[in-house]
Amino acid sequence: MKIDLNALATLAAVAxxxxxxxxxxxxxxxxxxxxxxxxxxxxxxxxxxxRRTTRSVSLTEAGEALLDRIVPALAEIExxxxxxxxxxxxxxxxxxxxxxxxAETFLSGDLLASFRATHPDVRLDIFVTDAEFDxxxxxxxxxxxxxEVIERDMIAVPASREQRQIVVAAPSYxxxxxxxxxxxxxxQHRCIGWRSSVEAAPYRWEFSExxxxxxxxxxxxxxxxxxxxxxxxxxxxxxLTIGMAETFAPWLKSGDLSEVLVPFCPPLxxxxxxxxxxxxxxxxxxxxxxxxxxxxxxxM
Length: 300
Description:
Oligomer: single chain
Radius of gyration: 23 Å
Structural class: alpha/beta
């Protein structure tokens, strides 16, 4: 059986975009060419890869099984071809990154601006998200997340100092409601919580005591996926909230917020730039990895 790799890549684009029209726009071809490529794959394999309705496109079970195996292989082929085509060893092209919204250091602008200044031929497409998903299947070159939530088959490079997840509140709130002495007392306080998506449950606040980790299932009176809103409401005296220490640093310094439960909030490994193991790493990604390492070393 001989199958067309270009047709497979087109099928992957349709699956990723969930639309023939959007895939055609991304690939710079006609919708008819996309349809023919998908039909070619289905005819060759003798089974349907996609379910089509007037409103949506989704993978069949056979399509999901095929894409799970071929997407990493297609990424390898593309990376190898780009590497071979770069005769002068100069990083070029589009680098797609999925970055956690709380990776303050990475998103501060300094690191990315200095990278662009060093490698002006590399364009950046940065998607800020806290959803956990397969970055390879979604077409990203790399991601930035806390180390504890990165898949084990990924290569991870430190992209920040150690972090601390802390609990804060406005002094006005603490004066009125009192200061909790132990995380279990949080259930008696007004809390501002976080959730990564509409479908996800509110985040369980995590602590450590005597080297043993535990979580408290607070019942937030306000829940959001926007850390900026959490900070604003906490500063306004609406309750206690939780997040990375560097997120709250300006308001802790100004006195707008106060940290509580300090003994129960130990350091965390921090954020990591992660990417799939590849025999031929794209030069643009190698350039970013090297830049992150050098940038972090200069700030330690």
